[in-house]
Prior knowledge:
This protein is an alpha+beta fold and 139 residues long. 45% of the residues lie in helices and 24% in strands. The termini are far apart.
Amino acid sequence: xxxKKIIRSERGDVSYISTFVYILVAMIMVAFILNVFHIIxxxxxxxxxxxxLVKQIQLNGxxxxxxxxxxxxxxxxxxxxxxxxxxxxxxxxTNRIQIGTPFYVTVTGRCYLGxxxxxxxxxxxxxxxxxxxxxxxxx
Length: 139
């Protein structure tokens, strides 16, 4: 039989080709939905990282080696995120933030939508922000 004739057929029966196409479309949609949920979970993990960094900086009164170690520990499970970094900004030195001074933490990274085979088709930049106020008094 001619394939065009089978595809254009308006009879009530289902052909193998149309069944294959329906299953293929359904599988592509499932892969897309799973990828979107993965990106949402990565965003939640990055929000958690920024919140934990804010708490640590609030108590220590600035950034130090412990801040980098905490970031490395929290970022380890997110190995599939490219370029995962953090940045702390304050009006002055970020090493010694005086009590009552606000500061901001930004965690950035890149994920990809790619389907079943991790094709990395669509890059998505993700940013998580956190803000806090130092609780440490520097003499």
